[in-house]
Amino acid sequence: MTSDWKECKLSDVCELVAGFAFKSKDFGGYNNKVIKIANITPPYVQMDNLSGVDISKYDKSKLNKFKVTVGDYVLAMTGATIGKLGRILCDEAYINQRVLSFSPQNSIDKKFLYYVLSQNKFNKYILNYTDSDTAQPNISANTIGKYKFYLPELKTQRKIARVLGAIDDKIELNNSINKNLEQQAMAIFKEKVINTCNYEKNGCIGDYVTVKSGFAFKGTWWQDSGIKVIKIKTIDNDTINFKDCSYVSEDKVQYAEDFTVQGGDILIAMTGATIGKFAVIPRVKETLLVNQRVGKFFLGNNPIEKLPFLYCTLKEQDIISEIINRGQGSAQPNISGTDIMTTPCYIPQNNTINEFNSVCKPMFEKIINNKYENERLTQLRDTLLPKLMNGEIDVDKVEV
Questions:
Q1: For each successive 10 residues of the chain (400 residues), what is the average pLDDT?
Q2: Among residues 203, 297, 320, 326, which is most buried (max CB within 10 A)?
Q3: Residue 117: which of 46, 47, 13 has the closest Cα?
Q4: How far is residue 359's CA from residue 254's CA, in Å, rounded to a whole number?
Q5: Within 10 A of 215 (CB to CB), how many other CB atoms are there?
Q6: According to DSSP H, which parts of the chain are helical?
Q7: Is the domain 6-151 a CATH 1.10.3720.10 member?
């Protein structure tokens, strides 16, 4: 680190604004959208399902400081998602209470600030200073503002942000391609499958595939490294967050052979707040195991052959909603493999299913490969991030 890097606090270089306490009774089908903690699903804010609020009940001039827009960043300040950071990609909205926004001053580049907040170092600071004596863990804007880091001159900040941003831009491009491919597949699904069934659910998921809860690993088996085990918390926003995996030793694989997964397999959360969330395994080059309460759909030795039909079935909102509803009724939402397999769905003739899978297979191969590339790019970015942010790598020698 060179001498021009100065230690500072977050509050020295940006204004931290904790969200407004909108009243529950004022939410409804209004155009003025509000970002709540649940909308923060890193690395983005999910803007397509925001709640609307009737701002005529409030002083609009006082609400302006709680307004955020494209390119802003917000942070969860409480609950199980505390410390989660999301970037706003579109639209304009207000922030609800327990959501924090950052307004950078001229001394710090906005994208550089994002990478300051993206570091594991910052996340550990959040967790270390969280107030856990309350019903829900929480942290104040004042405490977050005291976080210290080293700040180089603006020219260096912008170069660092460009290096890391180039990686994130490629990740976003791959995600955009995948979203487009998924939309194409869903359009074909409606034409070739749902239309063929005359919009009547004439079968159930179990007619196509079996699903079982993963292996019950013993608590004493967990360790800091080894073979990755996918748990419920690993399934995040239609992706597998491999950084949240747990580990067992290689000799434990023999006990869970039925619950190894490969590229093209689909997993689904079967309990807790994330019940019904599912994700496709990207192309992988390592052994992956599935923990209990994570459902594995058994698609065979070459899952990509049967993946398109199952994926599009689960993407039908009324079908996945039915799966989620079947898990309600207890303090901890919970669903069984039988509940999932008996969920009604569209089942046309086998030749129709095979034709659909054949047409859409190349699309899903591309999706899986893009997910794999994103995983590699994420690892590269996460390796470079701390080295660039502490001056260990001379950014002047790095070509963007």
A1: 84 96 92 92 85 91 92 92 89 94 95 94 91 80 96 94 94 95 98 96 97 96 96 84 91 95 96 90 92 96 97 96 88 91 97 97 96 93 91 75
A2: 297
A3: 13
A4: 36
A5: 20
A6: 10-13, 60-63, 110-118, 120-128, 141-145, 154-189, 307-315, 317-326, 337-341, 350-389
A7: no
Of 91, 36, 92, 25, the residue nearest 58 (C-alpha): 25
* Preceding omega of 43 cis (within 30 degrees of 0): yes
Distance CA 315, CA 100 (A): 32
In the chain, domain spans: 6-151, 183-349
Half-sphere exposure of 103 (CA within 13 A, CB side): 11
CATH class of 183-349: alpha beta
Q: Taking the model in full, what pTM does it have?
A: 0.85
| 222 touches 372 (CB < 8 A) | no
Euclidean distance between CA atoms 329 and 318, whole angstroms = 19
Q: Do domains 6-151 and 183-349 have the same CATH topology?
A: yes
* DSSP assignments along 334-391, one per residue: B--HHHHHTSEE----HHHHHHHHHHHHHHHHHHHHHHHHHHHHHHHHHHHHHHHHTT
Amino acid at 375: E
Residue 259, CA distances (Å) to 222, 256, 265 in order: 17, 5, 11
Residue type, 295: G
First and final C-alpha spacing in the chain: 20
Specify whether the CB–CB gap between 73 and 62 falls below 8 A. no
Task: Evaluate the CA torsion angle 173, 178, 181, 187 in order and state its sign.
Answer: negative
The overall longest dimension of the chain from CA atoms, in Å, is 71
DSSP label of 192:
I
